[in-house]
C-alpha cells in the first residue's frame, strides 16, 4: 500500500491508532491525514473510550506530511489552497490531539519529523527511544513552520531551544527531548512499547471525565490570566463532582483502599 493507511484497534477502553506506511517512514498521505482526523473525531464522542495510543508501524514514528506526493501531481493548485485545506487536515490533527478530552500517549521510534514531530509534542505523554530523532525541517525546505510548531516548541522547551529547532533546523534526540521537557520520557528502544502501555493502563484506569476536564483547563490556562483560569477550574470542578468516579474516589478515601474508577 504505497499510499499507506491509518489502522485502528480496541484494547479494552483504549483506542490504538497506527500510522501504517513503513516503506515511507510513515509519511502521511492526504488520505492518511483525513483518516487520522476521522478516527480522532469519532473518538472524541465515544463514551466507552478512556485513552488513546498513537504509534508508527516499523522503525519510525512519522516523517510528516508527504510533500513530495503533494507536489508531484503536475497540477498547480488554486491560489489559497493551503489556507483552505490545512485547517481541516494537518492542523486539525494537532488540534484534536491537544483538545480531545481523553489522554493521548505516543510511542516514538526512529524519525519524528515536521507534522510527525508536532503530533508527538501535542500528545499528553510521549515516550521515545533515546536514539529517536525529533526534527522540524520546514525552513531547510524553504517554507515556514506549520502544524502548531511555533506554539508548541516555545511553551515546551523555551524560546531559545525553539529557535534552534525551527530557525537552525537542529535535530534533537529522544534523550535530549526528554531532558528539554519536550516529551514525557526517553527509554531504550526495546522498552518503548512497555513504557507507553504502562502509562496507557494508568490513564485508562483513572477518572476519565476529571482527566479530560483537567486537560482542558491546562490548555485554557496557557492563554488566560489567573482569575480566568480559576473560574474555568471552578466550572470544571462543578462538573467533575457530579460524576460516579467522584463518589467512588470519596468512598475509597474513607475506606482506605484504591479507587475503582469506571470513567463515568
From TrEMBL:
GO molecular function (one): isomerase activity
Keyword annotations: Isomerase
Signal peptide: none
Keyword Isomerase appears in the UniProt entry: yes
Xref: SUPFAM superfamilies: ClpP/crotonase
Family matches, as InterPro entries: ClpP/crotonase-like_dom_sf (IPR029045), Enoyl-CoA_hydra/iso (IPR001753), Enoyl-CoA_hydra_C (IPR014748)
CDD domains the UniProt entry points to: crotonase-like
Family per record: Belongs to the enoyl-CoA hydratase/isomerase family.
Protein's name according to its UniProt entry: Enoyl-CoA hydratase/isomerase
UniProt source species: Mycolicibacterium fortuitum subsp. fortuitum DSM 46621 = ATCC 6841 = JCM 6387
Amino acid at each position: 500500500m504505497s499510499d499507506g493507511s491509518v489502522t485502528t484497534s480496541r484494547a479494552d477502553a483504549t483506542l490504538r491508532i497506527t500510522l501504517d506506511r513503513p516503506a515511507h517512514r510513515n509519511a502521511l498521505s492526504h488520505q492518511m491525514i483525513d483518516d487520522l482526523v476521522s478516527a480522532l473525531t469519532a473518538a472524541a464522542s465515544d463514551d466507552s473510550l478512556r485513552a488513546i495510543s498513537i504509534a508508527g508501524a516499523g522503525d519510525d514514528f512519522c516523517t510528516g506530511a508527504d510533500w513530495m506526493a503533494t507536489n508531484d501531481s503536475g497540477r498547480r493548485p488554486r491560489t489559497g489552497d493551503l489556507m483552505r485545506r490545512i485547517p481541516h487536515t494537518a492542523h486539525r490533527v494537532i488540534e484534536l490531539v491537544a483538545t480531545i478530552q481523553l489522554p493521548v500517549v505516543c510511542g516514538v521510534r526512529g524519525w519524528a519529523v515536521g507534522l510527525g514531530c508536532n503530533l508527538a509534542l501535542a500528545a499528553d505523554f510521549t515516550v521515545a527511544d533515546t536514539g529517536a530523532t525529533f526534527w522540524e525541517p520546514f525552513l531547510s525546505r524553504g517554507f515556514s513552520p506549520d502544524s502548531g510548531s511555533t506554539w508548541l516548541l516555545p511553551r515546551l522547551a523555551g524560546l531559545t531551544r525553539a529557535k534552534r529547532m525551527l530557525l537552525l533546523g537542529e535535530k534533537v534526540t529522544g534523550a535530549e527531548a526528554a531532558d528539554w521537557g519536550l516529551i514525557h520520557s526517553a527509554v531504550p528502544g526495546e522498552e518503548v512499547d512497555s513504557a507507553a502501555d504502562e502509562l496507557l493502563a494508568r490513564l485508562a484506569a483513572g477518572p476519565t471525565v476529571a482527566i479530560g476536564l483537567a486537560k482542558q483547563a491546562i490548555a485554557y490556562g496557557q492563554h488566560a490570566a489567573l482569575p480566568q483560569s480559576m473560574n474555568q477550574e471552578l466550572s470544571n470542578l462543578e462538573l467533575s463532582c457530579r460524576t460516579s468516579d467522584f463518589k467512588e474516589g470519596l468512598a475509597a478515601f474513607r475506606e482506605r483502599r484504591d479507587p475503582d474508577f469506571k470513567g463515568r
